Amino acid sequence: MSKRTVKVGLVQNSCSPDLELNLSKAGEGVRKAAQKGAQIICLQELFKSLYFCDVEDHDNFKLAENIPGPSTDFFSALAKELGVVIIASLFEKRAEGLYHNTTAVLDADGSYLGKYRKMHIPDDPGYYEKFYFTPGDLGYKVFNTKFAKIGVLICWDQWYPEAARVTSLMGAEMLFYPTAIGWHKDQDLETNDEQYQAWQTIQRSHAVANGVPVISVNRVGVEGDMKFWGGSFVTNAFGRVLYQADHGEEEVYVHELDMENSDRYRTHWPFLRDRRIDSYSPILKRFIDED
Known about the structure:
By secondary structure, this protein is α/β, with parallel strands linked by helices. The chain has one domain: Nitrilase/N-carbamoyl-D-aminoacid amidohydrolase, CATH 3.60.110.10. Helices cover 24% and strands 27% of the residues. The strands form three sheets. It has a six-stranded mixed sheet. It is globular.
């Protein structure tokens, strides 16, 4: 009996002010990944435009679109043509004055499987996402694609073990994180490295704790004061980095994952077996005061 494997594709691009060019470039990245054998292909966060959340500007709401809509139509046709699953991160206009940071999933037959709305919304210098995005209200999501049951989370969600845990408990066989994160372009190298290592380490820990591979796809390039640090990566189900992309170059990469590893790691390191779910209710509190 042959082992079950899934080939995942990462498209790490830079972006420009030209929306059509960005869309075309993303499409070409998907094609290249498919040519390399990818079955599930993930694009970076908000790939259709520059990362507009570095400023609070009402004109940027014009970038939003309906989901399903024109972009999902484009990727649905591409997914069907190539026979691949596509994970596409988009700026969703849900209604007048109501917007989300949303990822759509298109199955290998072109069908629209649904969307995940980013749950954790940051508000930091250069990342004014609370100005634009309403926190997700669909809960955590898994998508039963042709090749695997996948969980999709988005960027700032990366820092929250609760999000990875819930998505994994829902049956996700791997976790994808479309991302847009970087350094200030004038920041010192030591701080750059510390930040990147923390970002990668927290995601590797999600793989370890949940026994599932993690695939994180970031953007590259300088936009305003921000240098997006790339470094997209793939881990196995025990957090070992199987591949890490360059910090400055565009890349299309495909990696084959052995889907039998999750059972092996979960059996030998039975974290799910030994969870004390009866003791975790305090985690529902914002903070636990001594009094």
